Amino acid sequence: MNIIDQLQTHPNPPISIHQKQLESLIQAVTSLQHFLESYSPHGGYTEHEDYWESRIAEAAYDAEDVIETYIVDQVRYRSEIDIQYFSSRQFYQALEKVIENMNLIMIEIGEKVVVQDQLHIMKSVTPADSSRSTSTAKNVTMIGFDDVLDQMLDKITGGGSTRQILPIVGMGGIGKTTLARNIFVSPAVQEYFDVCAWSTISQGYDAQEILRQILDQVDKGKGGDLSVDELGDHLYKYLFGRKYFIVMDDMWTIEAWGGVRRFFPDSKNGSRIVVTTRLSNLASQFNYSNGLDLKFLDEDACWDLFCKTVFEEEACPLELEDVGKKIVKGCKGLPLSVAVIGGLLSKSERAKESWGLFEKNISSIVNLDDNESCLQVLYMSYNSLPVHLKPCFLYLGIYEEDIVIPITIIIQLLVAEGLVKPINGKGL
Prior knowledge:
- By secondary structure, the protein is of the alpha/beta class.
- It has three domains: 2-115; 124-140 and 297-383; 146-293, P-loop containing nucleotide triphosphate hydrolases (Rossmann fold, 3-Layer(aba) Sandwich), CATH 3.40.50.
- 54% of the residues lie in helices and 6% in strands.
- It has 20 helices and five strands.
- Helix 2 (19-38) runs parallel beside helix 4 (88-112) and helix 15 (318-330) runs parallel beside helix 17 (352-363).
- The protein is globular and about 80 Å long.
- 28% of the residues are buried.
């Protein structure tokens, strides 16, 4: 549709499309768009492509290829002699085939997609009050972990003078990074240590990048294009004699620590390194007695977090309390699930029927293993995105895990890919 719009508004378009064929194409594409806007895959999160979404995507790519090939050939034909080009007749026939395929998909959808009695979860997530603020999210994420935070702060600012490594262990979504972030920004830590730095590790760790991240924070501008040994030597000299606090977030292998450990001096001044990991066998490689095994939230803490996320300072209406508590119970004490579901419900209609749909979806994933359950909950959040934002989100898959994404570059890429559409009076 973006390409069609550009051709229609271009003062001197490179090609022309037969008017009746153009109308048929627009009608076919619009019908498929309308279907996607109301469609929610029945199976929830899956590693396999959804049948209808992939069929429609292929049909759209085919149309795009036919139109763009004809544009390129026409431009080249004008500038070169005796070149093989896509004739107007070939173009008409190829486009006709594409339109027939789109219409066939719509016919199959009408015959085979059974309309559910219940609306899908996506249908219930409609903005009920755009004025509701989401800014309170960062203030509620530590609900249920206050005691744990105090316990960790005591270990970090107390204890012996030797350098200590304190692991925070727990499954994905349980709040390891959130806890570490709250420790990192706490006045008790910022005032107690001379130097504080944060490093994100992840599965595909890179010793050079770990050292550069830390060096850029503690000694700005010194982490340029240096080797691991050069970076490490510079960092060691800078940290030596200083009382430092370092967070290494999301460590997956002991090799990640082994590649950089020699660059963190022990000046016997109470320096601390916090490591977050989901692997208990990795945590055991450190001084586990100093660490923390993060547990699930209890029911009261879950309910408190849920209410703060959905209603902010208001109380939960009595008519929603029963279904709300069933939803919270389905989250199995996982803060990520509570926060995601709460965030969705904060934007949905405050009605028992709408919440009942969420409760049924949560009930269907309670017995899955932890990782699959996490993905299903996150999929509900993805599925509630408007159709035009889904490809923008998926496009972020071109970046590696935990990489810093420059906003100006990603905007340019989204524009170049045609995922951001023109708005009257505004430049792309």
